Amino acid sequence: MISSRIRELAENIRPLFDDQAAQSLAGFWASLPKAAGSLGRLEYAAKHVALVRETTLPAFDRLGLYVFCGDHGICTEPVGADGPEATRRELLNFLRGDLPAAALAREYGIDRVVVDCGLSGEPEQGTHVYRVCEGALDFAVTAALSEDQLNAALEVGASLASEAARRHDFVAISQLGSGGSVSASAVLGAVTGRTATEVTFVDDLQDAELVAARRNTIQLALARHQLDTVSPLAALRFLGGAELAAMTGFILAAAWERLPVFADGFCAAVAALLARSVAPDSIDVVLFPGCSTDAAWSSVLETLDVVPLLQLEATEGAGFHAVLAMHLVAGILKCGRLLAAGVVARRADDEKAQETPELA
Question: Which domains does the chain have, with CATH numbers?
């Protein structure tokens, strides 16, 4: 049963966009000294952020990257996921700034918030610990999360989004943890009814045998839990993980707070799909910064009927696309502010010139 807080959020989220605001925003950008739409999808994203924030030129100085971490019992050799040891190595690299997303976030002044919502072992210094479990259980054997753990993870994400709305102008969410993409693939299959071949994320695999084994494991799990996954949140409980649930809760609360969220990576895209299933209008708050060539990742975006902002075909994770996208969108908003200031200054100069009498 869904918690009362999450249910209340879901019931009270309303559409974030309206035609009058969109027309006013279009008029502002049309007034700037540039060709209409000349800034392409970056201009579209800047307008999206502005509509969510309910202002023509939203602030863009305080940006945040929230990385949700969790371990997974499904991590076994047949699915090509290395388990907690691999997660810990990637986590340490991120905390040291040795991953591309972390290095760029530091360079661009983007606040990094690493959330341990389901890791196993000793907590790592530099993480924010909100554990609801010590790793999700093996969904090939049993439910990945208990009902209490699912609700706790959803509420962790919601609380973090409410806090983020006070600290940041817009944010990104991403996932870190071996096996996370495997569980997100299974959830995607249960929610959409697509086959394991269509929903299995394989960007991290090079070996054809491992790809086939992962798909087979997901297909067997989908069959095993077919009667359990009667709703999207039930699919999340039986097949997902703590970090996927936390990201889902984050998006729901962000929609309530009108905080723009750049959903980075396959897992974050699945979280956006889950949030939309709970509260359809929550999708208004989400922007999608990029996508690799992975068919499963593309299928989520197609289901959501969205086009990623950047077409880099990069496979780098932990927020890489989002850090680039937020930096670029902030630049477009700054450009809009500078151009608008120039228009105002020229208008003032023209008015002053008209008021000054000509010398004989």
Answer: 4-20+58-331 (3.40.50.10210)
